[in-house]
Amino acid sequence: MTRKVTKRRPAQEQDKLIFTALRESGRPVSAYEIIDQLRDRATLAPQTVYRALDRLIASGSAHRLESLNAFVACCQTGHQGSAVFAICEDCGTVTEFAEARAVDALSSWAKKSKFAVRAMTLELRGRCGACAAQMA
Ligand SMILES: [Zn+2]
Ligand SMILES: [Zn+2]
To answer: Is the pTM of this model over 0.85?
Structure first.
């Protein structure tokens, strides 16, 4: 009996590859954009990418932007949980910022209301400083 050996990339390697792609793009990207971006380096199935993204989010290396259905590399390391983003609707730039007070305020409201928070991603939409300066 011969066992078929399928060469698979270890999960760690996939995560690294996908995290690099997120970092390189510097803007929110969808899973399909990641696959496209890595086309020369690897052939990845969407499921593989989604699984890797789940791991990256769980470990605090990436965030998911619900409203854009896209993913971004975290600006910190090991940042688990809540994140605050400002999204420019003109140029698409996404800025992550640490605003612990906003997160704390919402967390304490949730606690008081006995609301169990599964995920918290705050998204501010508008125009970034660079775009505003261009308009002026
Ligand atoms: Zn973060
Ligand atoms: Zn802008």
So the answer is: no
**Inside any domain, residue 79:** yes
Q: How far is the CA of 99 from the centre of ligand 2 (A)?
A: 20
The region that residue 26 occupies, defined by phi over 0 for left and psi between -120 and 50 for alpha, beta otherwise, is left
pLDDT of 52 higher than 80: yes
Q: How many domains does the chain have?
A: 1
Task: Compute, in angstroms, the gap from residue 72 CA to the centroid of ligand 1.
Answer: 9
Identify the CATH number of the domain in which residue 61 sits: 3.30.1490.190
Distance between alpha carbon 134 and the CA centroid of its chain, in Å?
A: 28
| 1 within domain boundaries | no
